[in-house]
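To whoever picks this up:

The parser on our side crashed when reading a file containing two proteins. I've narrowed it down to the boundary between the first structure block and the second sequence. Both blocks are reproduced below exactly, byte for byte. First block:
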Amino acid sequence: MPARFSLLDLLVLLAYLAGTTALGMLVGRRQRDVKDYFVADRAIAWWVVLFSVVATETSALTFIGAPTFSYLGDFGFLQIVAGYILGRVVIAFTLLPRYYDGQLVTAYGLLERRFGIGARRFTSIVFMVTRALADSVRIFATAIPVAIIVQSVVPRRSAMPAAVLLLGLLTIVYTYRGGMKAVVWTELLQAGVYVGGGVAAIILLGHVVPGGWSDIITAARHAGKLRLIDTYTGIDRANTLLAGLVGGAFLSMASHGADQLIVQRLLSARSLKDAQRAIIGSGIAVFFQFALFLVIGIGLWRLYGGRTFATPDAVFPTFIVEHMPAGLLGLVLAAVVAATMSTHSGAINSLAASTTHDIYLPLSKRSSDDPRVLRMGKLFALGWGVVLTVGALLFREQGTPVVVVALSIASFTYGGLLGGFFLGIFWSRAVQRDAILGMSVGILAMAFVVFAKQIAGAVPSVAASLGPLARIAWPWYVFIGTSITLLVGITSSYTHPAPRAGATRA
């Protein structure tokens, strides 16, 4: 281990890992059926759901990646986070009431009620693929600082695989056993740990930078790093007011309304009203959370003089290892681990829920209260835990902040999924084939847009024609994908007679 990683740090880190695992296994030691295992029998208080949602979407991408935004730029990312709040308000009063009316366990059950089993299976499979890819990146991100710690114990080339395996296996243990109850209560603990770690980093930066925060703020202001609003109206820049309010809102509507990872937590609340409180409150909490980590970024910028690191996401991990005192180093490392363990555990449970309810139950024809279904649900959780860990082992650094990589992966499918839900709610002429066609075209089109830069690089002859697509900033992906899906689905709906009245009720 690096000389600075003391026995006290090790004890703090081990205490966190042991405490999280024990808590998860304790609160989730009994499950009667899959409803209990996957949505905690709809008995979770709204404030616990709120922090569970925040912890789930935070992961190490926020803890590690968010400071990178302000280190390299300014506070403009908060424009996107403001859009997140708007998107959650829309979902709270459109999709959430429909989920609760149907007493659903997965978001995609709503599409079966509206369109048929084919739409449910299609969207569930899209969710599984996207979630598996995105969360593999998240695990990789968390392993970065852990690998820095362990690289003196194991060969350097083995440090990342060892870190990934450690994080993956520990999360699998309590998630497999405890189900959703274990997930939400450990996420509450984890949210407290990583917010505490962020606050500790801010306090320490005030001591290690000559002149403290007064000097940091003054220097940042003169360098233009405190800029919050960018009124640029083009779609080739990410951190602008227009991209934030429109793109951020659509991204949030997709992630919190069409992604089982978040929807499953909202369905664990005691009532629709509690779920609405949780989703809107989580948006406000996330805004202040991002502000916290962006402040850390300008402190790191002042400390390191804007120096270039080997990878963009190495800035904060380097500070953690180089400057954290004994005990606090272990706590902050635990915070980094907490951020991803919360998302990782949620991803495992949501993937298992979707596999069980959207694929296995319709095929097996078994009742959800059959004990065999609960056993299968746990096996699916175990299997997905292994898949995500292996995916993280296979991921390779791209030279781009990992938060952007993960959001880009999600974005090229999110538009198709959200468009499918909106088509079902707002367009009565649409039937199943319209929805599947619209979502398929929307996803394929956005895959082409997202990878336009790579295609242009591989095929120079088309680089000029693909240039405008390659320059589209990632916050616009979901908006564009949703628009394409709706356009194709609506157009397709005029190729057949309108369905009978009442046949399309969501």
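<<boundary where parser fails>>
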Amino acid sequence: MINLIYLITYMLIVRRVLLAMNKKIFYAFISLILMSLINCKTYAQNTGSASIDGYAVEVYNDNIIDEEDDETSPIQDILVELLDSNDNTVASTRTDENGKYTFNNVRNGTYKIQYSWGKVDENELNNATSENGVKKIQNILKYNGQDYYIYDENQSSILENDELREDINYYFKSFSYDNTIIFTALNMQVSSDSDLKNFKQYALDLSNSTYMTGKSTQAFTIDNSSNQIEGPVLKLMQRDPYTISPSVSLLEMSITLNNGSVIDSMSTDASNPGDLVSSLDEKNTYGSNLKLKYNISFDNVSNYSSCSRLAFLLYLPNKFDYNESYGIKATGISGNNEITDLAIDNITTFNSDNIDDLDDVSDDVINYLAKNSAIYVSIDLTKQDFSLSQGESINVTLSVSSLLSKQDNLLYNGKVEIIEYENDYSRRLQYFGTDKSTTDAIAGNFNKNESDYIESNNWASIIPPTGKNKNYLMLILIFCLLGIVFLAYFRPISYLITKIRKKI
């Protein structure tokens, strides 16, 4: 207002001078003054001191509406951008350790908020120290859109980039030895500059392939009356876990001599498996052939998705081989209990002889196979009229055999780990239970805490495990029987002992 008074006064002063000039020059001068006034007014309207505050949080309950609720966790390092009415980026920041973001000194206008999670900046990576950089990148990678989705109780404030989501689905659809690094990224240990360099490049490549964005659909306006504006809250919820529940049990155990004579044979019920125990002496045990038959099942307990390919390892104690003479049988069981015969894509025995053929497995697996064995089985469902959908199962029975020696441990179980799979919705087997805890499922890490790893429900054993030609239980029973016979036939001695006791 003051500037306007000054300008009017100035115009009155110079009026007389300007009247002496050409009228065209006068009107041009007046036009320039009016345009200046308009520009001043526009500038004044677009200058403000308002701030915009908001949060990025992870929610665990569908009923959560308060970002400060106990059932939420703040998300750090989410990229937040302030967009103008033309969707141009005016300012950008990242959420802090409390999940909060702030834009200060925002001019008057209409804005939207855009969030990007899983997106890293190359300059940030290059300037990161080993410890801080890894922690920061780990946190960013955690929310790369693979494991989380935008949750909004009103289904209106935030939109997810569906096209990018499809790209991520494709990128993460398979899980195998070759891309194990994708699943170990959050647990990478950086101990040297070269390790950090490799980690940075991997983080950048993964980020460029998988980051997700969400943008507020409802714009908000800042005017001269605005002081502090509450921006929209980014709420991420964990996607429904993709879970295949494995189980394994021993069905049969038989021991045969080299001539084919069966020394001992036994079986158990698959629905309620009991332990299989054989009692043999050293002469019949060592040098004989042991056959074990396993039943392995995989149940899709996910809320959605189907499986197009599945492969697993059956870890076995001692040096076992797949027994081709007894074959292998795989069936698909639908939700209506309809059975479909399935073909096996590949079956291979791994031990110390061909351990190098296993790629990207953990040291635990390498050490295990030095003295033991594992049977690799893969099933390609794309070639068959069956998909492991929700509520459906795959059942596999196979037999293994081994020539027993004194070095063998005569106690047997089975351990199964899913090592490769493909599914429609790219959910990895990462989660177990219903709480917030997670465990990584990594191909070939031999970790009993994995969701894709299970030990057999029962055991098979041959006693005595020492290899001694003694059966202590039978010996004890024999001595007891001899004692009873002795007392029965030698009553005079017994009578004499009784007399002595009475005198005492």
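After patching the parser it read the second block fine. Residues 40-46, 177-183, 431-438 have pLDDT under 50 and may be disordered. The chain has four domains: 2-45, 50-238, 244-463, 473-503.
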